[in-house]
Amino acid sequence: MHVLSNTLLFPALIALLATVLAIPAAWAIRSAGGSSGVIAGGGRGVGPTWSLWFTLVASPLLLPNYLAYAGWGLLRAPRTPLGDWLAHQPEWTIVAFNKALAVAGLSLWAWPIAAMALAPGVSRLSQDVLDSLALDSVSRPARSLGLVRLITRPLTFAFGCVFLVMLGSVVPLHLAQIETAATDSWRRLSLSAGMGPALAAAWPVLLVACGAALLITRTIVRERSIDEPDAGVPARSARAAPILAAAIWALSIPAPLALFLYYVRPPGSAVGWLEALRQQSHAFWRDSGGAVVQSLAIAGSVGALAAVVAFGTWAACSLGDQGPAARLARGAATLLTLVLFFVGLSPGVLLGAALAHLTTRAPLWLADSSAPLIAAHLLRFGFVAALLGALAAVLEPRAQRDLRRLDRATGLRGWVTAAMLPRLPLVGAGAIVVALLSFHEIESTIFLLNPGAQSLSQQLLEQLHFARDQRLAAAAANLLVIGLALSMLAAVLLARSFRPGAPPSIGRGSAIPDQKQ
């Protein structure tokens, strides 16, 4: 009962805090033009302001989920004021601090999920409605309460999205010694108890993952399209929202990075800070350079395969039921999406252990290759690619889709010319996102390592376990640079996929090839 209550309580606390942190970012996206440009389905193009906000909002997700936990945790390192104070406190104080740090750290990683889930609901709020609310409310608390009532459903949706993701989260909760169903499964697997006890321990997470996968698949894998939104009354800029959103983002990335850089020199050491950073960075690349290159190669392969998944889901959702081949493609996409969401919402340690068990029966050349890791990471994060594929299908304007079908451009060639090419950068951005998630994956990776092999994830996990703060600080600082550079590239590609411009000409005599050609 204790494990079950923790399984529900801590993801709920993380989801609640992440949703609160996401409100300023969602409001800033609305003010930047996200309502009509992208999120609400406008497709009318976005400007550099929206691209900047997307980069800020999305970047914490593309970095390790233990980043904020480990970075802020350096404040309690030995020979620091907080560390010395905690050393003289009762054990329950230390335990409570570690749990609070895990909740806060995961919230600082997960708030972008809540922001992107909340932004559509906030963006659909009419400025006329907001003006009326301001006139009718006698005080600021009353106005805030009225605003919360207007976005109750988006807030609930954002909370649910983070809650689902956090149910299967393991690493920070495991490090904080919070016993949930996911961490209990990891403990049983580490003790070689076998898959049976591990699956039995994770039944609450697996049950929720199954129900959520069914619901999500039913929602996204169906033919939908958008109408061009009315211009309406333009949203007025909220001054406080961008400032608060930027401050929350600073707590998620720059502040932990600054702590990593500061503590790269041991407290009380006579070595200069720059020299300590140089030494630790040199040691990181000397000891982990090969693991970084291998992890990047695996991540690149996973990203390429994720692009294939996105294209497949996109085509299946766009082609409709035009013939047996299209119906077969839709059925295959539905089944694939269902599997990917179920696996993605389940604990990664179960996936890694299951594939490790299967590789014992595989040929030696296959078991010793990178194929099991690539398969694990694709199954773990392929749902992101499927979701982006469904989003790309939804973003095709209904008028464009209907004209494409009237022109009998219902086949694959017509879809490629009219629908796919204008949104092609979206798939590139999705591939980079999945590749970055693969690059930082720990949970499934540790079970698929060959004996004697040392991967980047294994090294980082050991440093987290044994409080090797200086090595971890140097590793995190170097990996942050890689992650931020790639996340900026993903943001640029996404902005290009929503840039202003008329869709391809559709009609008799247009350039779209006929399905029968």
> Tell me about the biggest sheet?
none
Give the SSE string: HHHHHHHHHHHHHHHHHHHHHHHHH
- Strand tally: 0
Helix coverage percent: over 70%
Number of helices: 25
Beta-strand share of residues: under 5%
Name the average pLDDT.
78
Radius of gyration: 24 Å
Short note summarizing the structure:
72% of the residues lie in helices and 0% in strands. The chain is built from 25 helices and no strands.
Key structural traits:
0% strand, 517 residues, disordered C terminus
How would you describe this structure to a colleague?
This protein is an all-alpha fold and about 525 residues long. The chain is about 70% helix and about 0% strand. It has helices at about 1-30, 35-40, 50-60, 65-75, 80-85, 90-125, 125-135, 140-150, 150-165, 170-175, 180-190, 195-200, 205-220, 240-250, 255-260, 275-320, 325-345, 350-360, 365, 370-395, 400-405, 410-420, 425-440, 455-465, 470-495. Helix 1 crosses helix 9 (about 150-165), helix 13 (about 205-220) packs antiparallel against helix 17 and helix 23 (about 425-440) runs antiparallel to helix 25 (about 470-495).
Layout of helices and strands:
Elements: H1 2-31, H2 34-39, H3 48-58, H4 67-73, H5 81-87, H6 91-123, H7 127-136, H8 140-150, H9 152-167, H10 171-175, H11 181-190, H12 195-201, H13 203-220, H14 240-252, H15 254-262, H16 273-318, H17 324-345, H18 348-359, H19 364-367, H20 371-394, H21 398-406, H22 412-420, H23 424-439, H24 456-465, H25 469-497
